[in-house]
Amino acid sequence: VQLQASGGGLVQAGDSLKLSCVASGRTVSNSRMGWFRQAPGKERELVAASKPDGTTYYEDSVSGRFTIFSDNAKNTVYLEMNSLKPEDTAVYYCAMGTTVLPVTSRAYYRTGQGTQVTVSS
After folding, report:
1. Each residue of 37-47: pLDDT tens digit?
2. How many of the other CB atoms lie within 10 Å of CB of 46?
3. Which region holds residue 74: left if phi is over 0, alpha if psi is between -120 and 50, else beta?
4. How far apart are CA 47 and CA 68, in angstroms?
5. CA–CA gap between residue 32 and residue 105 (Å, rounded)
6. Strand 115-120 and strand 9-12: pairing?
7. What sign does the CA torsion over 57, 62, 65, 68 have?
8. pLDDT per residue over 59-109, tens digit each?
9. How many other CB atoms sit within 10 Å of the CB of residue 36?
10. Strand ranges (DSSP E) for the chain?
């Protein structure tokens, strides 16, 4: 299984970005998918996750601003990020996990390389 994330960049506060994560070797439609982020000096945190049954999870600070969704035809999961804030600055990683665990689980068996998101004030 490989996960290729892209879409990061340098934006201003209030702007939007859409991150993409293309999966190969396993379908996203049968997997629990998540987006983590890690800021310098901080622990990696789960910001959004989804399961094939439609359940989703959002970390409190991003709820209402971020949306996780997938395009099964492209085997890709996205993270739409709106109203970005400087505190959203981090390296963002996508991850794939089993569906037997709840959507809030932090356990994933594959994590892709990160994409840098920098939000200036």
Report:
1. 999 999 999 99
2. 19
3. alpha
4. 10
5. 10
6. parallel
7. negative
8. 999 999 999 999 999 999 999 999 999 999 999 999 999 999 999 999 999
9. 23
10. 2-6, 9-12, 17-24, 32-38, 45-50, 56-58, 66-71, 76-81, 90-97, 110-111, 115-120
Is the dihedral angle over the CA atoms 41, 3, 48, 87 positive or is it negative? positive
Longest dimension (CA), the chain: 40
Bridge partners for 67 per DSSP: 80
User: Any idea which residue has 């994933």 for tokens?
Assistant: 108
Contact 18, 80 (CB under 8 A): yes
Whether the CB-CB separation of 115 and 37 falls below 8 Å is answered with no
How many angstroms separate the CA atoms of 90 and 103, rounded?
22
Q: Which two tokens stand for residue 120?
A: 């200036």
Give the span between the Cα atoms of 10 and 33, in whole angstroms.
25
One-letter identity of residue 56: T
Q: Are 77 and 66 in contact (CB under 8 A)?
A: no
Look up residue 98 and give its two tokens. Answer: 């089993």
Q: Which residue has the tokens 């622990």?
A: 43
